[in-house]
Design goal:
Belongs to the FMN-dependent alpha-hydroxy acid dehydrogenase family. By secondary structure, the protein is an alpha/beta fold. It is 35% helix and 15% strand. Helix 8 links the parallel strand 11 and strand 12.
């Protein structure tokens, strides 16, 4: 039992706890009377570098599910990455938030024709980027799910996973197409051949894979360890971030998710080279509490904290709007061996 408890603790801590070892270095006597949090990601403006990561099954948290999440993202003028495992259809999500900035997250299915139909569908619906999750060639040892006897009922539908014949009937969760464990770097060219959307790889944690991402002409990386849910004892996203940023040498945009809970966390991520952060669990907490308004509250809390943190460290943020990375390593000092 002691060994099991340790593994669970490590898994839970793996996502961001090293943030406490990163310290801000404020500069004073700066004009911070107006703090501009706007920035650009993949050529689109967002109100702040704080966006929504892909998570599935939002109808488990709130009856309107992803519709509420999309409306909150649109109201906040930020990006929402819609999951392959959404419980609302892509069409309904677009209808709910027609002016929202939308990216689509894809788990590569074994059925290549199904992948192609999904990609072409999101492109036709106005999604502006394709986010391919690379860190789930198979499900990890999710002991919490086993302990909690998680049972996604067969009537909880994934409305965007359809048969290769293009049938419109949604597929029950327990009958969905399996993830393709054979998908590799050589397959990226096929994805690029079927879409004009920018391709972003989610789950990169090493400089070697970051360099390969640049070599394969993708447009972005989300540094992520899947919230510590895939591989026990993997390094936290924040620790991998600087390595990935250094490896890409500014050639593609780098983002990060995992364990971001405060405005200070956002500031630290940007200072270490991220262009934007993506929130996962906090969005679901807000959704479960108050639906669309709960998501809006979570976003507003973190955005306001971020704005305050910027002012208190002497950063007015207008440079972020122009796409310059003046924050990189400028206001952060790391303490070693803590």
């Amino acid at each position: 039992m002691a060994g099991e408890a340790r593994r669970e603790a490590v898994s839970c801590m793996n996502h961001w706890t090293c943030s406490s070892r990163i310290h801000l270095r404020p500069r004073y006597l700066k004009d911070v009377s107006e703090v501009d949090t706007k920035t650009m990601i993949q050529g689109a403006e967002v109100s702040a570098p704080i966006c929504i990561a892909p998570t599935g099954f939002h109808c488990l948290a709130w009856p309107d599910g992803e519709l509420s999440t999309a409306r909150a993202a649109q109201a906040a003028n930020i990006c929402y990455i819609t999951s392959t495992y959404s419980t609302c259809s892509l069409e309904d999500i677009v209808t709910a938030a027609p002016k929202g900035l939308r990216w689509f997250q894809l788990y590569m299915q074994t059925n290549r024709q199904l992948n192609q139909l999904l990609v072409q569908r999101v492109e036709a619906l106005g999604f502006q980027a394709l986010v391919i999750t690379v860190d789930v060639p198979m499900l990890g040892n999710r002991r919490h799910d086993l302990r909690n006897q998680l049972d996604l009922k067969s009537n909880l539908l994934l409305k965007d996973l359809r048969s290769h014949k293009g049938q419109i009937n949604p597929m029950p969760v327990l009958q969905m197409s399996p993830i393709d464990s054979s998908f590799s770097w050589s397959d990226l060219s096929w994805v690029q051949s079927i879409t004009q959307l920018p391709i972003i790889l989610k789950g990169i944690l090493t400089k070697e894979d970051a360099e390969l991402a640049v070599k394969h002409n993708v447009q972005g990386i989300i540094v992520s360890n899947h919230g510590g849910r895939q591989l026990d004892e993997v390094l936290p996203s924040i620790d991998a971030l600087t390595e990935v940023v250094a490896a890409v040498k500014g050639k593609i945009e780098v983002y990060v998710d995992g364990g971001i809970r405060t405005g200070n966390d956002v500031l630290k991520a940007l200072a270490l080279g991220a262009k934007c952060v993506f929130l996962g669990r906090p969005i679901l907490w807000g959704l479960a509490c108050k639906g669309e308004h709960g998501v809006e509250e979570v976003l507003n809390i973190i955005k306001n904290e971020f704005r305050t943190s910027m002012a208190l460290t002497g950063m007015a943020m207008s440079t972020l709007h122009r796409g310059e990375s003046v924050l990189h390593r400028a206001i952060v000092g790391r303490l070693r061996n803590l």
